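# nightly structure sweep
# worker-07 picked up a monomer target from the shared queue
# config: single-sequence mode, recycle default, output format = structure tokens
# input follows
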Amino acid sequence: MNQDKKWLSRRQVLKLGGGLLGLGAASTILPKALLKPDRVAEAAPGQAQAEPNLHFAASDGWIHLPDPAVPPYHPDNLAPAPLTTYIFGFRNVTGLTDQQVYAQKMKVQLAAPTWWLNEGEDFTLKITNLGLAVRPDLVDAHTLHFHGFRDAIPIFDGEPHSSVGVPISRDLTYFYRPHHPGTYMYHCHFEETEHVHMGMVGTVFIRPVMGPNFAYNDPSTEFDREWTLMLNEVWSLAHWCDSHVQLPEWSDYAPDFWLLNGRAYPDTIAPPGGGNDPVTGDLIAPAGHPELQYQPISSLIRCNEGDRVLLRFANLGYEEQSMRLTGMPMKLIGRDAVQLKGRDGTDLSQITDTVIVGPGESADAIFVAPSVSLAPGQDYQRFFLYNRNVNRISNGGAPGYGGQMTEVHVYPAGTLPPQTEPNT
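# output follows
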């Protein structure tokens, strides 16, 4: 072997390639077709950019978690009443003016907004980083990682080592071309241990070409109503540490509140928020619940008898959860955006009363609402959907129901109108 032969390292190859590319561009040695592919549009000066399908802002804020107190961490003594807990998060600011968008700093929500795409239809989502009001010392970038999505190129993946982050006061528009229907989730992937736990988590799903009332391209997955259920936890010590410029020891992780769509029972069954105020752009609090202004997604499941109801579970906490529905069986039809069906068409779905969802996993289950027999003056029959781990259906370890629990209200046939959006 010739010891005098020197191989180029990967870094040297990259440097050489970059130098050649720059030289070629400057001297027009390289053909224009290489530098300007015909599939890429050249932005002319002053040319208007197409509006994205969605526009999210990333910042920090406060939410409300119920009693009891977990001193000194909950309620946080810096929180403005009636709020209790510091978070990082996202907000849907689609259609707001620039002035309204930047006024949403310190007004993010938990869980992050639910959104969806249609199989085969291109989709764009713009992220604007507003910075952190309580922690201006943290100059963190943010990303949107579409967990499980098959990206065409790495720049839109949101994983910061292979793509790009969004610095403060900057924005980035992500492009997606969806091909695989099912339930996914999304989160910030910058400083992910902290940012995920602090609340930058939400549910996203892809509707199949078969239609909006199918979970997958299979007639057996048809449904009448759907609910997304984002599962995560709050370790109040870690949230307090972030607002008080401290560092938690993550290996001591010990959450004390467990959430469905950013709320703990009984807040889970409160009504949804009212969208954005047209004047200020601020979130409109659920009727009668000003403390839930920044937790707008309800987990109260309402349906008519005979309805086929799709539950989209997504877990972006750090613990495995077991969600049980009493009084009616569920048919588990999908996991991690893959229908439970063999390559030869074999039905691999399962009938169960409990769906187990690990960290970073999703699951799709359908139940058929039973016939109801109501007493005089009773409008609906009530069932419970809850975490089988009794420690996780309490708040702060106190007696009484709380945590990851919600209710299913079944009404007589024809009572409720058709559903127009998930979780309504």
